[in-house]
Amino acid sequence: MLTFISFWRAAAVVLNDLGSSAFYAGGIAEEAVGKAAPWFILGIMLFSFAVRAVYVESCSMFTRGGVYRVVKEALGGNFAKLSVSALMFDYILTGPISGVSAGQYITGLLNELMIVGSQHGWLPAAMINSNHLAWQFPVNGTSAVFCAVVTIYYWWQNIKGIEESSDKALEVMKITTIMVVLLLGWGIWSAFHVGAKLPPLPTPSNLHFSKDALGFLSGTKLAASLGLFGILMAFGHSILAMSGEETLAQVNREIQHPKLKNLKRAAIVIAIYSTVFTGIVSLLAVMLIPDSVRVPVYRDNLIAGLAMNMVGPLTLKIVFRVFVVIVGFLILSGAINTSIIGSTGVLMRVAEDGVLTDWFRKPHHKFGTSYRIINLVTGLQLFTIIVSRGNVITLGEAYAFGVIWSFTFNSLAMLVLRWKYEGERGWKVPINIKIGKTELPVGLFSVFLVLFTTAIVNLFTKSVATESGVAFAAAFFVIFSISERKNQQKQLVTVKQMKEHFQLEQPEIISRAALEIEPGGVLVTMRDSANPFALKWALSRTNTKEQDIVVLTARMMGAGGPEYLDEQLFSEHEQMLFTKAVSVAESFGKHISLLVVPAGDIFAALVQTANSLEVAALVSGLSSKMSAQEQAYHVGQAWEALPEPKRQFTFYVIMPDGQDQSFHIGPHAPTLQGEDVQLVHRLWLNFRRDPETHGLHHSDIVTYALTRLAAEYARDKVETLKDLRRYTQDGSRTSTMLGHSPRSSYREGLDYSIPAPKSSRELPNSSQDD
After folding, report:
1. How many Å apart are CA 555 and CA 351, to the nearest integer?
2. What is the percent of the chain where pLDDT is above 90?
3. Other C-beta atoms lying within 10 Å of the C-beta of residue 560
4. Other C-beta atoms within 10 Å of 695: how many?
5. Buried/exposed 79-101: b ≥16 CB within 10 Å, e otherwise
6. Which of 628, 176, 399, 319 has its CA nearest to residue 618?
7. Exposed (0-12), middle (13-18) or buried (19+): which is 77, by Cβ within 10 Å?
8. pLDDT 10s digits, 36-48
9. What are phi and psi of 73, to 5 degrees?
10. What is the spatial distance between Cα 566 and Cα 557, in angstroms, rounded to a whole number?
11. How far apart are the C-alpha atoms of 637 and 634, rounded to whole Å?
12. Helix (H) or strand (E) holding 551
């Protein structure tokens, strides 16, 4: 889970998706429009500055400013379902095209090494065919198998519950940056050394469309005299170089404060990096790779071809090509995982909105993940790999459909919101001309016009994309519509049942007043109706006449999700959870309150709710993916991120066997061992022998020691840390778990901890000694 990351890390996450297109966009575009393709790739990358600005404006209005949320807000549910269908086509194709492209780079390298080995007599006779040539791997077939294997690997990781890490993304981008610097530096020097010429200018006379690139216009009179229309066609065939923008909206919610400022910084970093990488590399490839091999041999692994056509010794070029393939594997295979996570997030979002039935959201019995949605996404990706047979051109043609239409719907929605929503925005797409009280969004309208025109042109010139994209989007739209209708009918029954069983309220804010509870209560999480051991533990130890118990379940919000629960009262899963909770509470003869909260980050949601309700204890079952210490660490991190004022509480992790581990969250009195207390007392006795220290207290000794330690740390941090590490690692002390401590470490009758759930067997008038 990404939590409060810097704009550098946010840019790295987006570039891991967006940067992958640099490995295949140039070859696909040149196959379609000829040698002038790099200019259109560069134009697309410059235009991406404007498209990214639209996403920044949407994120300034909505924390999760994804396509679904924005389009639904502006154009309604039907357009939202249509736009998310196109977006799903984009995400589903991202995995196969990235994986197949990675396979093309690896297979191309293996085949090249086989040829070199054959020329030098390094290959055994079994690997030489009857024509005395080196045996070669079938490129498309091998790439498809590789892509399928990697997809299945990431499917299993997501079933288990993989965490998207900004650390990993940043490390990958560091390695990629080294490759890009070497590639550009060596490539530009080679271009000057051989006197390479720039590609032909992007004029109609320099465009040479392939038969497939003309699509439905092939054989028509229009195809013979394209003119300016040909420029639009070439622009449309290069649009897939701009894929990955939706990831920016997903990562926005994780960017640290000030969010909007850091979002804009991340957008600028992404724009400059992708323009330099994708745009200039495409230019160098046409300048340095000979025409005879550029498209026939290196079309699907263009950067590898560029590495092999630098000026320098063959060994160095092969070594660099291996490095390129390694980097390509990291960034392209990572894009497969991003596509599964992104697709799952989008479908979870529409499921939470009632568009898909709860059947899709049923958690895995062991890992707790939305395995049915993950299975659906992976199944569609594997189907795509099989149908395409590892052909990058076919995948690229289809991929462009989802890319351009998701951008078009997003920009149209933002244009509508300029008039529909007249409130203040954190940022607007320039240029805006004000005439009287009316503001004309010239810049935003221009972006929409370019995207819409390109999308319409692509409908006629990309037959594969149009046929497959329209069929896919229509199928998903029908599924969404039918599922939504069934869900609405089921919800009417559910609401009726819930009104009979529970008092349903939807307060705007979570507060004690809304739940009618007192401070110092107990908040219990519940996610599995089959194993309510945490609730049973809390009920057995809490006198509900003195402490209120609130049972909480979190509704996870996917990518583009809202910060509220809309008008959905309960899903089937939540109904089952709360029915079980009430049943368990009744078996103890105790009262509980029920609460559903939206959550993007589960730990942040728990801590915010605990703070809002001013509870004394938060009780949770042991996670299937984390230890109790790891759960406590994440809760502590979320607590640290809360704004003031914030309240301390005790976090209890309950094992299935009923054992518990407790952790104090927030500043608290340290757990002193018996020998520590004895040491303070001996020091106090010694100091009291001085006549001038008769007013000395035990606390004065501790305060003095801490003040002196702080002074030493300020004076010599390195030495102080060294001494502290040596002290804590010497193994001579008996450590105790946070929240548990020997009886001897406490003064009799004095409670040093934050109040925990009280036993129902305690006397009502029991009190604590001062």
Report:
1. 11
2. 27
3. 31
4. 7
5. bbbbbbbbbbbbbbbbbbbbbbb
6. 628
7. middle
8. 999 999 999 999 9
9. -65, -35
10. 12
11. 5
12. strand 549-556
Kind of pairing between the strands at 433-435 and 438-440: antiparallel
pLDDT, tens only, 497-538: 555 455 445 555 677 887 888 899 999 998 887 788 899 999
Stated as kind and residue range, the H or E segment containing 597 is: strand 593-599
Q: Tally Cβ neighbours within 10 Å of residue 302.
A: 29
Strand 617-621 to 593-599 pairing = unpaired
The helix-helix angle for 37-61 and 281-288 (nearest 10°) equals 170
DSSP letter at 134 equals B
Q: Would you tell me how many other CB atoms lie within 10 Å of the CB of residue 679?
A: 13
In angstroms, the CA 169 to CA 172 distance is: 5
Q: What secondary structure does DSSP assign to 64-79, as a single string?
A: T--HHHHHHHHH-HHH
Between CA 649 and CA 644 the distance in angstroms is 15
Q: Encode pLDDT of 262-305 as tens digits.
A: 989 999 999 999 999 999 999 999 999 999 999 888 888 899 99
Higher-confidence residue of 722 and 493: namely: 722
User: Which residues, including other chains, have CB under 8 Å from residue 751's CB and lie 6 or more apart?
Assistant: 768
| Phi and psi at residue 553, to the nearest 5° | -125, 140
As given in the structure block, the two tokens for residue 749 are: 């009758």
Sheet containing strand 660-665, strands side by side: 593-599, 549-556, 522-525, 617-621, 649-654, 660-665
Q: Taking Cα atoms as reference points, which of 507, 503, 550 lies closest to residue 525?
A: 550
Give the global pTM. 0.66
